Amino acid sequence: MNNNQIVNALFDAVQNNNLDIAGTDKKFYTKLVLHAAEIRDLYTKLYAQHPAYSENFSKLIEVLIAANQNRATDLKNRDNKKAENWYLSNELAGMSLYVDRFCGHLTKLPGKLDYVLNLGVNLLHLMPVFESPENESDGGYAVSDFRKVDKKFGTLKDLHKLRQTMQEKDMYLMLDIVLNHTSHKHEWAQKARAGEKEYQDYFYFFDNRTIPDQFEKNMPEVFPESAPGNFTWIEECQKWVMTVFHKYQWDLNYSNPKVFVEMLDNVLFYANLGIDILRIDAPAFLWKEIGTNCQNLPQAHTILQLLKQCVQVTAPGMALLGEAIVAPSAIMKYFGQERYKAMECDFAYNATQMALQWDALATGQVSVMLSAQPILAEKPFGTSWITYTRCHDDIGLGYDDYMIQEAGYNSYEHRKYLKEYFSGSHAGSPSRGALFSVNPKTQDARISGTLASLCGLEKAIENNSAVQIVSSIQKILLMQANSFFLGGLPMLFYGDEAAYLNDYSFLQNPAKSYDNRWMHRPVIDWEKNKLTEVPGTIESQVFSGTQKLLAIRRKLSVVADTKNTKWLPRHNIHVAGFLRNGGGKSLYCIFNYSQDSSYLTWYAFKQNGTIPVKLFDHWREEEYLISSDEDYLILDPYAFYLLEVVE
Q1: Which end of the chain, N or C, is surrounded by fewer C-beta atoms within 10 Å?
Q2: 3-class SS letters over 261-306
Q3: Residue range 69-88: average pLDDT?
């Protein structure tokens, strides 16, 4: 499709939809024209050889126009008011939660907003709320209707009211879209099951095992314990269908342009709900090719880049988050490369740093963490991380072997130690977690557990040890402080702010007992949460500490993610530190991961040939005068410092 054909396609679309390009639709049309060539180029990379190429390109333009026409005036105004790269601000802080387990229902969530605002959170990530079959939902990630809120959460009207209430309170909203697959109860899947060829082409259907077996040679298993293999036999139509995650989640076939256009329509439907950040689940799996592991393929990135261009046209105030929990070098590609650098996902999860924090906590050493920073520093300006310590998912140890080896460890034995430490099977470990998705062939496994239990609080309470409780609380705050100040949008997981322990009740639920990640997805007991207001309680100590950290972050503009993080050279194997610079301000963030006191020479603070004379610690609200680089900062066990240079 050449430029003349693009012009003709746009002209036809304008005529067919009565666009007022000189009036109310002028801004949209201008954006559409500016982005049309990029949209064409990316679409062509994917579908140039497809027989329905032109037909579906025209439909794509129609979808963009319809989304603009359906976008409410208040949302367009909100787009216009948002600063470019608004999401880099140090004034944003998020919390991820399950609506039903947090407060029961969407209609009850407005009544809890003051609780999270008091904590210092002004962005909520609602875990999947759209319709998914009971007992076959994968926590909401097996969607049977992309446009219907599951009745257990409420209605679409309830979601609209929540969004309006949040925006009145200057809050932001993040929702998920599951692009890779649908539930087998989705309308498309039901029609495919009934034998309709058009809808079987929405998925990967095969008459026999010949092609599936070719795929399987290179495809790993996502859930080897509960869902081995990547294909499921469908008796009704006598075919195999690709099911990378669970047998009830059917992978969508993005080599079919009609699938892309349909899912783009859903993305823009979500945008018109007033979403500020759209979390794209499992983007690494979007494209499949025989002879590959079907993850992180170039076409998956092209799909995301095309989505980004389309969103820029219709909902420029909505940021995209790619949930790619992959190796560090692969994560970087989700921000875009070369021509599309910083033009793919606006956010990615800093899963590497999250896991490396747990590595440092278990070993008491920061060498592995520091070896990973050069690759993480490649994140382009204008993009950002979601930084976190815990989330709804497990902790993977997927950082590269060379990072472990550079620190002087054997990578297999090191990971074995970490798994034993956090599952509590290692002698002397204070942690109470569990291994998730153990691969019997490779012994690979991930880790489940709440922040508090993994930091030793559960065991400390069982031991009735005041000393261990204090230590556990300090670990919790250490972990959160690193996450909050590193650079990115910090995302708490609900319950962590009130020191929730593992919940083992999932073992009595047949629909959940096979998945121990439910141990760290608590049902909030609001009587327990009232203890956050009672001074001296564990809940209060963790809540108030988290609250203070977020307040400090909010007032320090140097913490905004302007690609201004510089890691300090290692001067103590137990201590990690980085410098945030900008706007004439300098903030040193220092963390001791050891169970013992550690010493850090003031020489470590030397920048451009000089050492600061005076530093103010925002955490302790104390000043430090430095008289000699031969003196030391003495860090208590698991202590951290937030030291601003005082001129």
Answers
A1: C
A2: HHHHHHHHHHHCCCCCEEEEECHHHCCCCCCCCCCCCHHHHHHHHH
A3: 96
